[in-house]
Design brief:
The complex is a heterodimer of chains A (537) and B (325). With 537 residues, chain A is α+β, with helices and mostly antiparallel strands. In chain A, 32% of the residues lie in helices and 20% in strands. Chain A starts with a helix and ends with a strand. The chains are: A alpha+beta (537), B mainly alpha (325). Chain B: It holds the Pfam family BPD_transp_1.
């Protein structure tokens, strides 16, 4: 993946701490000659317990980190970020884009011994992906049927054209298959299998002690020859980030995924030879920090004010001083890690320019009286340290141009309710998580007509017919080159209108023991099956 | 028999309080923005409106608030604590699973604090205003002023990361399956640091109280009488002073048994223990009303029971109280 390498080189050049750079690049080279060792227990930090573990029902890293080792998807991404078959061996789309045929792998069995067939795919697609799975229900909205002429063939039929490359980008996350025979009777959401998952993957579920740990053991009948290497994976529930860092140091944990430690602990462990701290292997989990504007406030419905706010904030300064090597300047809703869709930085940007910000605000007619022009309520999401720091930075930057910002903090449920349902905010800030294709995760932030209450969607009170049309055209465009051009157009349009500003780009940070081999080798490694992961002595 | 009737009366008197507490918590949680589906959406990273609606129905949130409250109380009357949204299990089962670590941690650290508080309190009172007193009081103040999460983390850094004497967290070793006495020892070794962390803060309070009440009792007339009788100093302290000085300590234990449950959220998180404090915290964040109310219910019951035991202890320590009651 060229961009990843480029990015590492860029980081290398910029790094003040050479130790981190050495850790990022060296291990692959130094240990390339070793022969894989069988055996060993891999201990994983599990920060937030979920309500269930089946990735066919819930698309989130907290589920993939466990369920992704036990259940498998039709397609995953290879080292270059290109789709590679897992349970599907090959695929083909009809020219009209309305049917997509998957040839499934032969000789694969579920952990309970029953064979895996196209009936499982049909059942999962129609009952889970289309009806329950978050993002899946949007992706598969126009899926009408899945035909199964034989056990190794599944033909997806769509009412409207489904771009093959969209489906293939989405299926690594939204294409996990569950066993029909375990789910066909009763309420899927209440099925006890959800907490004791059964799959086709390299690891078999053993035990889940809520609040303590989850254990999965090696699947001796796994379909890939000689895999997996590990005997066991243990996920330890540790909610306190600082305690998790201490457990890494005590050798009780091997891996803390998805920026699970505090920024300062990650920087500190990065200088320790026993650990590798890197963003590699998380390119598929890019996110951008946002500033979401509520157009119901008359000040914010003025484009000049939104632009002034963007110009008033010194983003590079913030990144250098608070986020360090783990973030970079963002250029819009499609992050630079997205090789297929990133339009380049040549779209409207809002570099730090305080004088310009002040001029824009004056021009918009909001004169400073006693130093203050108007006051805004800013709601930061509670997901990460960076958001909290960022909201304070925004507050201080805006006070310098005469906008008073009051920060209102909520927990997760409260934040979503207040911003996306009650619209009780002026500015909101959180993460936009990019899911490898703008149609899956990103365009809902801008497309008008989102139902009230749907989190991470356009609830800004903003509507733009041109943007809507670009989004709709791109979603059903089957020619990949034309799709890419349409999304470049989309980024230009939304960066001009600025209903949401996405000025920082981040990739999750992995902290992993230097003994691990074959790790971080795909763009969504933390979520993948780890069939080739092994531990050196 | 007298004990039973006393227990009955106490319980009957607590029931209205208990119901008021439950209704209060229920209404308080309604004021917090967002419900358990919003919390689930936050955890999942998104979902469409139709999914949210289906989930609200699934969790019974499509009913009005009074109907939900009525439902809950009606279930409670039949001793049914309801179903946990985050655990997908009956609340009673969830709480029962979490109760042993909490009670273990609570009893261990309270006993630790009580015992050493007593010993140090007596030593400090005997050497009042001399160096043992100054040393003990200063240490007590330091323990009291230090936040427990910091204490816990430092304990992990020193004893688990550098010295590697004790495990850094968890309730028991997952790698090896142990039985009998070995399992007991394993759990004990996991509980040493959390017990100390939680206990040290309370220790400070106990030793201050013990010191003060020793000093007070030492000045009373009957102590002078005891000394005049020619009793030796050890006898005076253990038989006459200690027994009377213990009353405030026992009161304190009754009061703190309740706070210990809440206070252990921090310690449980730092040491990754599966206790009630963490469960309560998680239920609030996840807006899991049934579980939270269940915990409030069980905690309130625990407090009532502990206070009842404290009353019985009073009577043993000071027969005058029993005679009056």
């Amino acid at each position: 993946m060229d961009l990843t390498r480029l990015e590492i080189n860029r980081r290398t050049a910029l790094l003040t701490s050479a130790a981190i750079a050495a850790n990022v690049i060296n291990p692959m080279r130094a240990f390339a000659q070793e022969t894989p060792r069988k055996g060993g227990v891999f201990n994983v930090h599990y920060g937030a317990e979920q309500r269930q573990l089946n990735p066919s029902l819930q698309a989130s890293t907290g589920v993939y980190i466990i369920g992704g080792k036990i259940q498998e998807n039709l397609v995953d991404l290879d080292a270059n970020g290109q789709p590679v078959g897992v349970l599907a061996e090959s695929w083909e789309a009809a020219p009209d884009g309305k049917t997509i045929t998957f040839k499934l792998r032969k000789g694969v069995t579920w952990h309970d011994g029953k064979p895996f067939t196209s009936a499982d795919v049909e059942f999962t697609a129609l009952n889970m992906w289309k009806k329950i799975l978050n993002y899946g229900s949007t992706l598969q909205l126009f899926l009408t049927a899945v035909d199964t002429p034989d056990p190794q063939t599944a033909i997806f039929r769509y009412e409207r054209p489904m771009p093959l490359n969209l489906l293939l980008r989405a299926l690594p996350d939204l294409g996990y298959v569950s066993a029909k025979h375990l789910y066909e009777s009763g309420d899927i959401r209440q099925n006890p299998v959800n907490l004791a998952p059964v799959g086709t993957g390299p690891f078999k579920f053993v035990k889940y002690e809520r609040g303590q740990y989850i254990i999965a053991d090696r699947n001796p009948d796994y379909w890939r020859p000689n895999a997996p290497y590990l005997d066991r994976i243990v996920w330890k529930v540790i909610t306190d980030r600082a305690a998790a860092a201490a457990q890494m140091e005590a050798g009780e944990l091997h891996y803390s995924p998805f920026s699970g430690l505090t920024i300062s602990d990650m920087a500190r462990l990065g200088k320790d030879k026993r650990f590798i701290v890197s963003t590699k292997g998380n390119e598929g989990n890019a996110r951008t920090n946002t500033i979401e504007f509520n157009f119901r406030r008359k000040e914010l419905s003025d484009l000049r004010v939104r632009r002034a706010i963007a110009h008033a904030i010194n983003v590079p300064f913030f990144i250098d001083n608070f986020l360090g090597d783990f973030a970079k300047l963002g250029t819009g809703p499609i992050p630079s890690t997205s090789t297929d869709f990133y339009p380049g930085p040549d779209t409207p940007q809002y570099p730090y320019d305080k004088a310009k910000a002040i001029a824009l605000l004056d021009e918009a007619g909001f004169k400073a009286r006693g130093g203050n022009r108007f006051a805004l309520k800013l709601l930061p999401a509670p997901w990460g340290e960076d958001i909290s720091l960022w909201s304070t930075f925004v507050q201080q930057s805006l006070s310098e141009v005469g906008i008073q910002v009051d920060i209102v903090r909520n927990d997760g449920g409260g934040f979503l309710k207040q911003v996306y349902d009650d619209h009780a905010f002026d500015l909101a800030t959180g993460w936009h998580q990019y899911r490898n294709d703008p149609a899956v995760s990103t365009t809902v932030w801008y497309r008008s007509g989102q139902p009230k209450g749907a989190p991470w969607t356009n609830q800004w009170g903003w509507e733009d017919k041109t943007v809507d049309k670009t989004i709709d055209d791109a979603a059903t465009e089957v020619d990949p080159a034309k799709r890419k051009a349409l999304y470049a157009e989309f980024v230009k349009e939304v960066n001009t209108e600025l209903p949401v500003w996405m000025p920082i780009e981040q990739i999750f940070v992995t902290v992993i023991t230097a003994k691990a081999r074959n790790h971080s080798n795909t763009p969504r490694w933390g979520s993948t099956s780890w069939h080739d992961l092994w531990l050196s002595t | 028999m007298r004990i039973l009737s006393l227990a009955g009366r106490r319980l009957a008197a607590s029931i209205p309080t208990l119901i008021l507490i439950l209704i209060g918590v229920f209404l308080l949680l309604q004021l917090a923005p967002g419900d358990t589906v919003d919390a689930l959406m936050a955890q999942m990273g998104g979902g469409d409106a139709a999914t949210a609606e289906a989930l609200r129905k699934f969790y019974g949130l499509d009913l009005s608030v009074p109907a939900q409250l009525g439902n809950y109380l009606w279930h409670l009357v039949r001793l049914d604590l309801g179903f946990s949204a985050i655990y997908g299990k009956p609340v009673a089962t969830v709480i029962l699973e979490r109760l042993p670590p909490t009670i273990l941690l609570m009893t261990a650290s309270l006993s630790f604090a009580f015992f050493f508080g007593l010993v140090f309190g007596v030593i400090a009172a005997r050497g009042v205003n001399r160096w043992p007193d100054t040393l003990i009081s200063t240490l007590g103040l330091i323990f009291y002023a230090t936040p427990s999460f910091w204490f816990g983390l430092m304990a992990i850094v020193v004893f688990s990361v550098y010295l590697q004497w004790l495990p850094p967290g968890g309730f028991e070793d997952i790698g090896t399956v142990q039985t009998g006495i070995w399992r007991l020892l394993d759990i004990a070794s996991h509980l040493v640091l959390p017990t100390l962390t939680l206990g040290l803060i309370f220790l400070a309070i106990y030793l201050r109280i013990m010191r003060a009440s020793m000093l007070e009792v030492l000045n009373l007339d009957f102590i002078r009488t005891a000394r005049a009788k020619g009793l030796d100093e050890t006898h005076v302290i253990t038989r006459h002073v200690l027994r009377n000085a213990l009353l405030p300590m026992v009161t304190l234990i009754g009061l703190q048994a309740g706070t210990m449950l809440g206070g252990s959220v921090v310690v449980e998180s730092v040491f990754s223990l599966p206790g009630l404090g963490r469960l309560a915290y998680e239920s609030v964040v996840q807006r899991d009303l049934n579980t939270l109310l269940g915990i409030v219910f069980v905690s309130a019951l625990l407090v009532i029971i502990v206070n009842f035991v404290v009353d019985l202890l009073y009577a043993r320590l000071d027969p005058r109280i029993a005679a009056e009651g």
